[in-house]
Q: What sequence folds into this?
């Protein structure tokens, strides 16, 4: 790691706990703004529950709209955590160290937020029990295990539980550091959470093995979750554009693209807000941007494959749908925007090292990616339903209502609020990983050059 | 005879390794002492006994348990409460596989985490002496011994270059 800096454990504690042991000046104003957004969002949700789904723009035949688009978007973002954390841990990539915690955290909070959307979309969320739990034995009805709508909560529940446990296990050594640096009631809480961690060889050995073992277990779950989300659409033969055999890998790679981009956005914010320049360095952005070029190109390949497969069959309704998506106003504008923001502009920038090492450019290009990825989900979900079908006489177009826009915006405020709340009490960069990096990296003289070295067991 | 918890603090790994050697030479068993660090060091860095664990059994046990439970759940619910759709068979293997897979993985993850805590001996409620400077870079060599061996232990720790020695009765 060419930009590695030699830091003492004391300095690492002081720098990485600067947001936990003291409150930054910007913290309360930012939380105030986000908190207001969260409250407005919850009030809007309650208003919608009170009035019913009539206050949304949903109407036959478009019964899946902004809520389901945003649900798929947040499930996609959640794939960042395991992609970054598990794959980089398994491959022992040295540059993973400052990234893993934030990525895992983003997984947990985005999944939690994603879960809200099907609940809200159901209109009467208290009746969700009908869908998931055995009820009313008199009618002999049990949750239908053959329905993808039953697979979804099982998969997301598994992923959420696994990710939360993964996050907690890796947090234990850092909780012990906080326990040792605090007093009073805070110390009491951290003492309970740290479970008596002392840092003996057995505990460290298990911590390292746990990271690898849990990564290996979480990876197949990560692949299955977005595959299952894609089957919500792919097993519906009646809607053109949904019934596709490549949806599972297409959704997974799209999720990785948007998720890793979201992690980069977050890393830029972490570097700016907490001044962690010693830990989140341009070399990390460079490595992530290189990874993103590969992921984005694979995703673009799937996008075109999906298009080619649908046109290759010469099926009239499929061709009509693609014509609507690509050439008809306003879908054509969305289509062009999604291609530009999802691939052409960001990847065009990332091809140049100067851009990959520029934090501001990385911030804005990764924001663009997620604008594009949100539009992609909207383009997949809505046009297939919005197309005028034969023998369908109740028909109208779809435009989201202000209620839907507010609730969608709320989800961004909510995730940011939760992330900042967590960051106030727990470190966002794993301290023990930063310290381990100091122990396991060194420099070696080769001729007149000094070469960085990483020791691996 | 009552037991005593003793902690020697060192500012470099070499002195901590010397302390372990000195304790061995003074007749203490490997199970009596432990090295405490704020960061993971390579295994055996202090010449300590490399601990053995059985963590890999936990996910296997969990996976078998989850698979069994999911087969039971998906099969019995469909047989006891049959909901025939389009004249298709009641037991839909593909649909059941999705749920079986997720429940198997969930159970494997949960038991792995239980295994991690169990094998790490957490939660640790022993009141052995500790120093908060360990998470700031100092290395602690901790041992539990009977009060009559206190002097021998403290001498071994001190001779190896301990910056400070702390002890508490148990």
A:
């Amino acid at each position: 790691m060419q930009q590695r800096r030699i830091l003492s454990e004391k300095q690492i504690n002081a720098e990485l706990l600067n947001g936990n042991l003291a409150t930054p000046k910007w913290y309360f104003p930012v939380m105030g703004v986000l908190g207001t957004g969260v409250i407005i969002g919850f009030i809007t949700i309650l208003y919608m529950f009170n009035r019913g789904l009539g206050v949304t723009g949903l109407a036959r035949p478009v019964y899946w709209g902004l809520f389901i688009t945003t649900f798929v978007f947040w499930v996609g973002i959640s794939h960042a955590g395991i992609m970054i954390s598990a794959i980089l841990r398994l491959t022992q990539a040295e540059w993973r160290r400052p990234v893993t915690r934030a990525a895992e955290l983003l997984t947990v909070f985005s999944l939690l937020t994603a879960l809200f959307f099907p609940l809200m979309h159901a209109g009467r969320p208290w009746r969700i029990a009908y869908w998931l739990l055995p009820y009313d034995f008199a009618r002999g009805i049990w949750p239908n295990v053959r329905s993808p709508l039953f697979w979804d909560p099982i998969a997301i529940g598994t992923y959420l539980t696994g990710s939360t446990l993964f996050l907690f296990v890796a947090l234990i050594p850092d909780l012990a550091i906080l326990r040792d640096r605090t007093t009073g009631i805070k110390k009491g809480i951290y003492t309970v959470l740290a479970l008596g961690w002392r840092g003996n060889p057995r505990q460290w050995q298990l911590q390292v093995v746990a990271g690898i073992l849990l990564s290996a277990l979480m990876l197949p779950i990560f692949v299955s979750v977005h595959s299952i989300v894609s089957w919500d659409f792919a097993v519906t033969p009646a809607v053109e554009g949904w019934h596709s055999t490549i949806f599972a890998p297409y959704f997974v790679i799209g999720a990785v693209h948007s998720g890793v981009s979201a992690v980069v956005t977050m890393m830029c914010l972490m570097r700016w807000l907490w001044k962690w320049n010693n830990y989140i360095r341009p070399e990390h952005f460079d490595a992530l941007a290189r990874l993103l070029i590969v992921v984005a190109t694979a995703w673009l390949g799937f996008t075109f494959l999906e298009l080619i497969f649908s046109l290759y069959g010469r099926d009239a309704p499929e061709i009509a749908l693609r014509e609507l998506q690509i050439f008809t106003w306003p879908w054509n504008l969305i289509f062009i925007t999604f291609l530009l923001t999802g691939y052409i502009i960001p990847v065009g920038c990332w091809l140049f090292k100067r851009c990959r090492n520029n934090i501001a450019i990385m911030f804005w290009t990764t924001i663009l990616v997620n604008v594009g990825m949100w539009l992609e989900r909207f383009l997949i979900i809505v046009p297939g339903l919005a197309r005028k079908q034969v023998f369908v006489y109740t028909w109208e177009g779809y435009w989201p209502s202000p209620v839907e826009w507010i609730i969608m915006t709320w989800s961004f405020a909510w995730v940011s609020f939760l992330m900042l709340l967590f960051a106030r009490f727990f470190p966002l960069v794993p301290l023990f990983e930063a310290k381990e990096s100091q122990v396991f990296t060194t420099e070696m003289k080769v001729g007149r050059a000094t070469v960085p070295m990483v020791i691996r067991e | 005879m009552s037991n005593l918890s003793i902690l020697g603090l060192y500012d470099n790994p070499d002195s901590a390794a010397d302390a372990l050697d000195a304790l061995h030479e003074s007749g203490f068993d490997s199970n009596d002492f432990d090295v405490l660090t704020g960061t993971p060091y390579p295994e055996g860095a202090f010449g300590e006994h490399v601990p053995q664990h059985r963590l890999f059994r936990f996910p296997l046990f969990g996976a078998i348990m989850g698979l069994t439970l999911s087969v039971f759940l998906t099969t019995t619910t469909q047989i006891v409460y049959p909901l025939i759709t389009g004249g298709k068979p009641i037991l839909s293997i593909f649909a059941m596989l999705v749920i079986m897979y997720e429940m198997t993985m969930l159970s494997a993850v949960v038991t792995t985490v239980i295994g991690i805590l169990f094998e790490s001996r957490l939660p640790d409620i022993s009141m052995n002496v500790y120093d908060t400077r360990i998470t700031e870079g100092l290395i602690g060599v901790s041992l539990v011994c009977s009060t009559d061996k206190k002097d021998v232990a403290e001498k071994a720790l001190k001779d190896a270059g301990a910056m400070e020695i702390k002890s508490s009765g148990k």
